[in-house]
Amino acid sequence: MSETTTPELDERGRSKVADVDRSLYDFKKPEEGYERYGDGLTPDIVRAISAKKDEPAWMLEMRLKALEVYHERAMSPNWGPDISGLDLDHISTYVSPQTKQAQSWDEVPEDIKDTFERLGIPAAERESLAGVGAQYDSEIVYHNMREEVAKQGVVYTTIEDALHDPKWEPVVHEYFGTLIPMRDHKFAALHYAVWSGGSFVYVPAGIRLDYPLQSYFRLNASGAGQFEHTLIVVEPGADLHFIEGCSAPKYFEANLHAGAVELFVKDGARLRYSTIENWSKNMYNLNTKRATVGAGSKMEWVSGSFGSHVSYLYPTTILQGARSTCEFTGITFAGATQDLDTGCKVILNGADTTASIDTKSISKDGGINTFRSSVVIGRHAERARASVSCQSLMLDDISRSDTIPAMDVRCGSASVGHEATIGRISDDTVLYLMSRGCSEAEARSMVVNGFASPVSKELPLEYAVEMNNLIKLEMEGAIG
Amino acid sequence: MADQLLSISGLSAGTEDKPILHDINLSVGAGETHVLMGPNGAGKSTLGHVIMGDASYQVTSGSIVFDGQDVTAQAADRRSLAGIFLSYQAPVEVPGVPLYSFLRTICQMRPELKTSARKFRERIARISDQLDLDESFLTRELNVGFSGGEKKKIEMLQLLLLRPKLAILDETDSGLDVDALAVVSRGIEAYRADCDGALLVITHNTRILERLSVDHAHVMVKGRLVAEGPASLIDEIDAQGFGRFEGAGEKAEA
Amino acid sequence: MAAQTLTGVNVPPAQTWNYLRINDISLELPTVVSKGTVPSRLPRLFSQMECGLGKEAVSWIEASAGDARYVEVPRGTTFEEPILVDVASDGGEVHDLGVLLREGASATVVVAARGTGTGAAASSAALVRVIVERGAHLKVVEILSVGDGNQHLEGLGIQADDDSSVEIRQYALGGARRAVGLAVDLAGKGASLRLDSRYLVGGHDLLDINHVVRQRGRNTRCDIVTQGLLEDAAHKTLRETIDLVHGAKGAKGNEVETVLVAGDEVVNKTLPVILCDEDDVAGNHGASIGSVSPEQLAYLAGRGLSEDEATKLFARAILDDAAIHAPEGVSLACALERAEQVLGAEIAHDAADTLGLEPTNSEDEEASA
Predict the structure, then answer these.
(1) Chain A residue closest to C237 (CA)?
(2) What residues make up the domain containing B159?
(3) pLDDT for C52-75, tens place per residue?
(4) Beta bridge partners of B58
(5) Are B and A neighbours with ≥3 CB pairs closer than 8 A?
(6) What is the CATH number of the domain that holds B101?
(7) Which residues on chain C are in Cβ contact (under 8 Å) with B109?
(8) Which residues on chain C are in Cβ contact (under 8 Å) with B139?
(9) What was the ipTM of the complex prediction?
C-alpha cells in the first residue's frame, strides 16, 4: 500500500481517508474438535453450561431466572440501532476449544497460541504487564500473573476458578450480578443466563499495582456469542489499571458479544479501565459495564471503539462516595456498515463528586455514530460538578453523527457544563497546512490524528500502537 | 493618616497556589487622584481586584481600611455598598439580564440613590448623553454582544450612577479607539467634577492621564510597589519606560 | 368534566433511555365534545406541519378549538398591527391559527395565554402554524402566564422558505402544567431562525418544552438561546433538537442553554440533541446548569449584589425582558400581571414605567406601532 503515490480522491476531489485495515485481526482458525453447543437458547443449554462448569446451585438458579427475564424483556422500541439481523436461534451461546486453561503459553494449543502471538499478547506480557488472561471463544485458555503480584494477595483468575475456591466463592457470591441486575435490559438477562469466561480480580486494601493486568477476548467461532463476565473488587486505598482488548475475524454470520463488567472501587481507591474494542463487522456488541465508586476514589475509563456492526455501549459510573471522581475518555470510529451507539452514563450521588466526560467520534463511508450519554445528579450531591465535551468529525456526506446527551440535575448547588460540536475538517485548516507544504491527504490525516490524539495518549503504549494501526497507518495508505 | 479614604498596609495576597502581591502599602485621600503604573503582569489589576474584594484572591497578611472601616474580611458586595467601585478591564457578560433591570436594581438597593422611576429615568438620560450612549442600550442584555468600547462606556455609566467614594479604573483605556477614549475621559472628568470622588487609575499607558490632574503616581513591579512620586513621575516613565524600576523590583525580591 | 389522557406529547425526533423519563409527557385533558356545528378548517397545506407537540395533541387542539382562524399576509406587505392570539386560560379557551406570509411579507404574531387560576383548574391551548414564503419575515412573541392551577398546551409550527427569516421570543412565566412544542422547518436555502426562550418556574409547577429545528435548506442558520430560572420544587424538561438534514450544505446550528437552579427540590432535565446527516455543516451545543457563574457573581458583587440578590436579579430580568419585548398591550399586560405576582406591584411596573412601556389603551399601542 505504501507504493501508492496518488491519493485516492472522492467525487468532490478530496482525498479519501482509508478504511481501517483489518488484515491484522482478520484471520480465522479451524474449529475442528471444539465443543459447540446447539444454536438457540433453551433451559437445557443453560443447564448444560452450568453442569460443565460444575457451579454452585445459586449460580444455576440465577441463570435459569435470567433466561426467563430474557424472554420477557423487549428491546426499547423507540431508540437505538436496529438489531433485527441478530437471531438468537442461529447463535451458539457456548463454543469451547477442548483445552485446559494454561499458565504457560507453551501449554496452549498451537493454533490458539499463534492467534495471541499475532495479536502481540505474550510479548506485551513479558514487557509491561503484571498479569494476562486470554479468552478464546467461550473459555479462558491462558491465565497468569507475576509471582510478586500474587504474593501481595492480588487475585487474578477466572470467575469459574474463583467459584471453585472455598475462599473466593463467597466473595463472588457477594458481588456477582449486584451492580448490573439481570433486569437491567434484555441482553443483561441473556448474559446472566449463558455467561462463560471472563475475569475475577481482587486487589487487597492498600495494594497498588505498578503494572496493568490485561484480559484479551478473541471470538474465533462463526455464528457464536461471547458472554464473559468481569468482576473486579478494588479494596480501600488500592490502585489498579486493567486493560481489556477484543477482536474477532470477519464472518458473514452474525456474532454476538454480550459481556458484563462489574467494578467495585472502594474508598480511597483508584481504578483505570482501558478498552480497545475491535470486533469484526459482523458483531453485535451489546456490552454492559458499570462501576460503583466509594468516597475519595477515582474511576478512569479509556475507551476506543472501532469494530462491530452494531454497538450499544455505555460504561456507567455511580459516584456514590463523597469527593469521588470519574473521568471518561472515549473515541468511536464508524465506517461502512457500522452503526455504533456509544457513550457513557454517570450518576453523581455523593457530595463534592466530579465527573468529566470527553468523547470524540469519527464517521466515514456511510458509518453511523451516535453519542449517547446521561448525567444524573442526585438531590444530595451538594457541589457536584460534571462536564461533558463531545466532538464529532464527519469525513464525508453519506455518514451520520448524532449527539444525544441527557442531563437530569436535582441539586441546586451542583453544576453541569456541556458542549458538543459537529463538523468536518475545516477547509481553512487544510489550506493552512497545505500552505506549509503538506499535501491535502497529509493535511487531512494530520487533522484526524490530532483529533484522536487526546484519546490515544491516554492508552497504554501497546494499545496506542494498536489504535495507530487502526487509524494512522491506514491513512498513510491513502497518502502513499 | 486617619483622614485617608483608603489605607492599605502590609498587604500580601494571591491566588490559592501563587502569591502575587507582596507587602503593599498605599493610601488614597478623599478626592485624590492616584495612578498605578507598571509593566504587564506586575500585579496592578490584582491589586484593584483585591481592594474590591474579589473572592478569587486571598489576602495572606495586612489590612485594607476604607472610610474608617477595616474591610479586609468583607465580601465585595459590602465594599461596593460602602463606596468602592472597580471598573473592569474586561466587563463580564451577563446574558438574560437587560441593562435596565441591572442598573435599576443596583441603584435601588442604595438608600442614598433610591428614587422614583421617573427621576431615575432622568438621571440615566443625562448620563447617557454625557457618554454618547444611545438609550436603546437599556433593553439589551448586560455586556452581551457589546464592543470593547461600548462595554467601557457601560462601566462609566455605572460609575456615574453609583457615585462611589473611590473609583478604581482597571486599564479602562486599553483597546479603545480615539473616539471611545475621549468619551471615557469625559466620563472620568464628570466623575471628578460631580461626585468629588477619589480615583485610582491603573494603566500602563499614559495617554488617558493627559486630561487628569494627578496627585500621586505609584509604580508596581513584580507585585511590589517600588516607587512613589508626584505627577512628574509619569512623564519620566513616559520618556524612559520601566527599566530603572525593574532592577528595584528584583532587589526587593532578593 | 370527562377527561382523557394524552400520552406521547412533546416527543423529540431522537429519544433515549426511557427510564430517564425525558422522552415525552402525558397530560390529562378534557374529552372533546362535538359542538354539532360545521367548524372552519385551515387550508390543507397546514395539516402536515410539525409543531413539536405531536400529532395526538394537535388533533386534540383542532377538535377542541372548533373554528380555526386563517390569516393571509399578501405578497410584499407588512402588517403593522400584530396578529394576536389572546387565550383566556381560566375559561379553558383553545385557539387554532394558521398564517400564510406571502413572498416578501412581514408580520408579527403574538400569543398571550393568560389567566388567574383562581377558579376551577382549566386547560387552555393555542396552536399556531405559519408558512413563511420566500424572503418573508416573521416575528413571534409568546407570553405564557396561564395562572396557578391551570394547564396549557402551546404548539408552534413554522415552515420557512428561501431567504426568509424567523425571530421568536418565548416567555414561559407561569402556570401549573405547561407543554410547549415548537417545530421550525428551515426548508428553503438561506432561511434563518433566531429563538430566544426564557422560563421562570417555581412552586410545584411543571414546564415541558420540545424545540425541534429541521435544517433542510442550504446555508440555513439557527440560533437558539434558552435561559431560565428554577425555584422551589419546579419541574422542567427541555428538549432541543437541531436536525442537520442531508443536503443542507453550509448550514449552521447553535443552541445554548443556561439554567439557574435556586430551589432545593427542583427537577431539571435537559436533552440537547444534534442530528447530523451532512458533512458540510457546523452544529454546536452548550449548556450550563447550576448557579450563577463565579465570574458573573464577582462582577455583580462588585456592584453591590450578594449571591441571593444576584439570583433575584435574574428572576426580575426574565420578567422585565418579557415586558420589554411584548409588542402590544395584551401581551404586555400579561407579562406585567405575572411580574406583579412574582415581584410585587412596585418593581413589576418599574421597568414598564421607566422605559415607557406601560399599556395605556390598545389604540395608543397601534398608533405607536
Answers:
(1) A408
(2) 4-253
(3) 999 999 999 999 998 999 999 999
(4) B14
(5) no
(6) 3.40.50.300
(7) 304-305, 309
(8) 324, 355
(9) 0.92
